[in-house]
Amino acid sequence: MANQRELEKSIHVDLKRQETYGGYLQLDKVLHAQAPRSSEHDEMLFIIQHQTSELWMKLMLHELDRALDCVKRDDLSASFKIFARVAHIQRMLFEQWAVLETMTPSEYLMFRDALGRSSGFQSYQYRALEFMLGNKDVNALLPHRDSKDIHEWLEARVKQPSLYDEFLRYLARHGHPIPKDRVDRDFTRPYEKSDGVMAVFKTVYEQPEKHWAAYEMAEKLVDVEERFQLWRFRHMKTVHRIIGHKMGTGGSSGVTFLQRALGLTFFPELWDVRTELTAPAQKS
């Protein structure tokens, strides 16, 4: 008997171009989107690593936009499944660094000059993710001034409330004493923590059974930020491993610049409240 699987007669083989697997996924575009500028073997790895990261970021933005809409219409429970999916997307983004880390410094140097001034700092989807999570900085739009559509898209995102802003608005709508200056402010500015917001979250965490939806949402946001920071850390260590403390191709200080990002916090009160909590009094 031949070591071959028989092709079932019911399988479709007479297909028009638009009905095929490759046509549906537009694989002709995807698989021909890699254009190495050198003849070095490892440049293909570098390109595919970053292209697939951009695809995962596109999906993450797609999901977080839906989560934001859920919060705006007071449907936190609908967002929880979305956050579960986002967790897996973030895991994929994190694990991808392991593939890039198989490239040695010597191998990278063979094609590094081909990058010119291109840099991950210029990723507009990464910037949109930071805006969504609250790391607002209008100066981050500067590298995109010459790309009208992208600049307008990012400008609209930097002006809209972040996921955290919308959660605070939700809490205010549901009777929690969120300070007015935290729900009605210039959303192009980075969020600044508030004692009033801290007091609200202290109440939520001290009485989770009474404020379960808000409590669970708070923990979902902490999950997202923790995984984002782990991704940032893995990125920094991968860069450190491959280029040491060389300047980045985009003009940054490289590892030092990436290290500074680790000190940024998206949801400050959700982290600080943990210090303020005390054990509940024991019933006699």
Descriptive keywords:
58% helix; 284 residues; globular; mainly alpha
Task: Outline the structure in words.
By secondary structure, the chain is mostly helical. Helices cover 58% and strands 0% of the residues. The chain has 13 helices and no strands. The protein has helices spanning 21-25, 27-30, 43-72, 76-100, 105-109, 124-133, 148-159, 163-173, 180-183, 195-206, 212-243, 255-261, 268-276. Helix 3 packs antiparallel against helix 4, helix 3 (43-72) runs parallel beside helix 6 (124-133) and helix 3 (43-72) packs parallel to helix 8. The radius of gyration is 23 Å and the shape is globular. The N and C termini lie far apart (78 Å). The mean pLDDT is 94.
Outline the secondary-structure elements.
Layout: H1 21-25, H2 27-30, H3 43-72, H4 76-100, H5 105-109, H6 124-133, H7 148-159, H8 163-173, H9 180-183, H10 195-206, H11 212-243, H12 255-261, H13 268-276
Helix pairs in contact: 3-4, 3-6, 3-8, 4-11, 6-7, 10-13, 11-12
